[in-house]
């Protein structure tokens, strides 16, 4: 036992280097695994928040669109695509002449 201790004390630099070489990959694997889990959880939370925001925007858009006339819907769609709104004129409705 004393001989082993004497050899270890003489070669302490080699033992320290061997321990360091063994510890670095282990520390990397443990830290990398924890970092991956945290990154995945963060991405899942960001995706859920973006989905919720899009859902709320869709509900607001749907409520706004329900109150629009056919003509207004046509104009909104064509203006959004940069096209002329002349094609929507037929949706305005025919004015009724009162006698």
Question: What does this protein look like?
Answer:
76% of the residues lie in helices and 0% in strands. The mean pLDDT is 80. The chain is rod-shaped, with a radius of gyration of 36 Å. With 99 residues, it is mainly alpha-helical. It has one domain. It contains three helices and no strands.
Number of DSSP E strands: 0
Count of discrete structural domains: 1
What is the average per-residue confidence, as pLDDT, rounded to a whole number? 80
The rough form would be described as: rod-shaped
Summed up:
This protein is mostly helical. The chain has helices at 2-10, 12-66, 70-80.
Strand-helix topology:
Layout: H1 2-10, H2 12-66, H3 70-80
What characteristics describe this protein?
single chain, 99 residues, mainly alpha, 3 helices, 0% strand
């Amino acid at each position: 036992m004393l001989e082993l201790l004497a050899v270890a004390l003489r070669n302490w630099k080699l033992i320290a280097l061997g321990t360091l070489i063994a510890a670095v990959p282990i520390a990397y694997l443990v830290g990398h695994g924890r970092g991956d889990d945290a990154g995945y959880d963060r991405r899942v939370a960001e995706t859920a928040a973006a989905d919720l925001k899009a859902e709320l925007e869709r509900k607001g858009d749907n409520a706004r669109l329900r109150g629009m006339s056919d003509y207004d819907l046509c104009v909104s769609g064509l203006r959004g695509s940069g096209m002329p709104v002349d094609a929507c004129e037929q949706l305005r409705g025919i004015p009724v002449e009162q006698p």
